[in-house]
Structures are given as structure tokens and as C-alpha cells.
Amino acid sequence: VAIFWSLVFLIPFTIAYGMHETGYELMESVVLDYIPFIVLLLGLFIVTGNIHVAGTIPGTTRNNVIMLAIGTFLASWVGTTGAAMLLIRPVLRANVWRRNKTHIIVFFIFLVANMGGCLTPLGDPPLFLGFLRGVPFLWTMEHIWHILVLNTVLLLALFALIDRHFIKKEGKEGLEALELERKAMGRVPFRIEGGHNVAFLALIILAVILNGTIPQIDSFLDAKGQVIGIDVYEGIHLGINYFLQIILIAIAAGLSWYTTKPVLREKNDFEWGPIAEVAKLFIGIFIRPRYITAVIMSIFKIKLLVKYRDKAMGFCRNLVEASDKAKLMPATTWVKCFAATAISWLSRYLMVCALFAMFGEGNNQFLVVARQSVVWLILMVTPTPGGSGVSEWLFTKYYSDMVSSVSIGLLLALSWRILSYYLYMIVGLCVIPAWLKKKNRHSAGFTTK
Q: What's the confidence (pLDDT) of residue 157?
């Protein structure tokens, strides 16, 4: 899939601008953006995976809100992946006594794994890439912290209402299980194991900050005004700050791995699956998976990698199985998927066009559609769910020449948000689960009869 979309861009770009310009843009994206991003992601993934939150925490509404709030705050400093790894298991353990807990994971994804990472470049890839291109480290914190606070409060309040509703439905057995957890809390106190890894997290943060700070210090600049370094391709310069960041993150990850007892990683169920999933996106399951399997297994014949051969084989089996299942799907399935996607996106565009027709001032609808295309590309890589904060800013700034005032822009943004996001979220959390339960009970009754 990733290769397909890459070719969709690269082929027309090559025809329009030539091989030289294409090679430059590709090299720039890979060397300046992709490699530092993967190194940062890997570093945070390893270090946070070596920190274990132990103890018994009862899964009450108050405790769940506290854990979600802490995770939302941490996400901007250890990355959304790191915060999710750190807190998902304590959250699951705290709520193991409950039957109705799907909503907890949904809100965890919204708050911790998405919008919580919007304050610093450590939080999410788009912000990190912006930092690499010169955006100040604290720019997003200075400009959208209040938007994050507002959205966090709204979602936590909504979560608390839904969570209380489901706790009341647990019944006597559930409440007895909760009481047992409360009693156990005194016997298994809350504690953080592997706390020395916080120092390695600080080293990663320092590495990222130095990468942005060194170019501003004259003593590190050459006669051309560039950071002292090397040219790897025409127009692509790698300064010492580039290598320093990668080296420091690698040191932090390596020291974290070798100074942490393996038992802590076992408690966290640490595995390379999430990184492997990222790799799957780039490999693509429709491209001869068995050939890819042969290549991977040949690599794991190397003496240093033999001990990981079984895990590699498991990954390869999953890859082949996923590919085989996808190929067995009937053509009608793909037609339905395409039609549903097309209708969904068409409705999104028409909704914004209708809002501008109502509140705008004689806008050209073709221009509205064109700008929407740009906005949706931005929102696709925005770390907050539904582009919270970013979309509001775009409505007041990017569309500023199409509305009479900032208040009209905010009104448009609020109307669009209610219709396209909050309404669907409420339906997904409240209406659909109840409908599915009712349908399942009906099906079970029909089968019994």
C-alpha cells in the first residue's frame, strides 16, 4: 500500500520535474526526515518498554480519569507510543474485573495515543518533522496548549459520564470484584520499576533539543552559514547536530536495554510487534509475501541473529496468512469497501462546501474543494484525533479570506466538528454497542429456538 502511494506521487513528479529533482526530493525525505524519525521512535519504544508500572490500582472512574490524564500529559514527552506502552497495561489490569470496558480503550486511544502528543516534537511524527525543518521546540506548546486542555477536559468529562454508566451496569458480582481490588491495593502498593530509565528518556529529550539548538550557535557554523558537517547529495547537508542526535538516542536505547533486567520487559510483554507492524506497511501484503519470507529467513541465518529466528518465522507466517486472506476476499468486498470510502469522503467535502455556502461570502466552491484537499492532507498526519485544534486553527487562518471574521471561522469549525466528529463519536460509543448487544441477544434467542 505504501509503495503504491509512493509511486502515485513519484511517477507524475518524475515526468514533470525529471529524475534529478526526484532523486533529490526522495533522498531529502529519507535522509533528513525518515531516518531521524525512525531512530527517535525506536529509542522511545525501547526505553519506555523497560519501565514497568506495578501495583494494584482499582478500576474506578476516578482512577481511570487520573490515569488517562497522566498518559495525556506524558505523551508529549515520551511520545504517544511510549506513553501508550507505559500505561496500557496498568489500565487493563485496573479494569480486569469489569465486563464493559471497551470504551476505556477507545478513550485511551483518543487521549494518550493521539491528542496527548501535540505539545512537543517528541509527541508525534508531524511535529518532529516540523522541528527538523526549523519549527521551535515549544512552538506548539505556546500556541495550542489551551486547545489541548479544552479537548482533554471535554473528553475526560464525557468519559467519566460513560464510565459511571457502565459501572452501574456491572451488578453485584462486579462490585464485589472491585471491593477485592481495593483491599488488594494495600498489599501490592503502586511503584515504578526500572525508574533509572527516566535518565535515558532525559538523554533522548536532550538529543532532540540539541539538534535544534546547535544550528543557532555561531561557533558550530562554517563559512557558508551551515552547521559543520558533510554533503551527502547535491543540496543535502548533514550537520554534526544530525549525527549527534542519532548517536545520543542510540546510546540511550542501548544503555536502557543492557541495564534493565529482562524480567521487566517480560512483565511489560515487550515485543517487537509494533515495529514489525510498521514494517508491514512498507512491505505490503499484496507483493509476493513468500518471496519476502525467504529473504527475511535468509537474513536470520546469520550467526548473531539465529536466536531471533523463531520470532522472525512467526512474523513471516502472519504476513503470508494476511496476504492469503486478502486474496481470497471476493471482488464484491473490495467494491463495497471502495464505495463506502468514496461516499464517506464525498460527504466530508460536501459538508464543508455547504457550510461555506451558508456562512461564507460568495465563495468559489471549486476553491473551497481545492483547499479542503490540502486541509485533509494535513489532518491525515495530525496527532490529535480528528485534527482537534489544528482543524480549528485552519478554519480561522487558512480560510481567513473566505470568511468575514474570526468568529465566523470558529462557528464554521464548531459546526463542522459537531457534524463530522462528535456526533459520530457519541453514536459509536453509545448507540452502536447497545444495538450490537440487542442484535446478539436476538440472534442467540433465535439459535436456541
A: 93
**Residue 99: per-residue pLDDT:** 79
Helices (H), 284-363: 289-299, 309-328, 331-359
Q: How many whole angstroms from its chain centre is CA 146? A: 21
Residue 317 CB contacts under 8 Å (≥ 6 apart), including other chains: none
Residues of the chain with pLDDT under 70: 1-6, 8, 171-189, 233, 271-292, 295, 319, 322-323, 326-327, 331, 334, 360-364, 373-374, 377-389, 392, 396, 398, 442-449
Residue 184 near residue 56, CB atoms below 8 Å: yes
Helices then strands, each counted (H, E), the chain: 19, 4
- Residue 393 has a CB neighbour count (10 Å cut-off) of 15
DSSP single-letter state for residue 419: I
Name the β-bridge partners of 237.
231
Cell digits for 333?
A: 468486498
In 158-294, the DSSP E strands lie at 191-193, 229-233, 236-239
Q: How far apart (Å, rounded) are the C-alpha atoms in residues 117 and 126?
A: 10
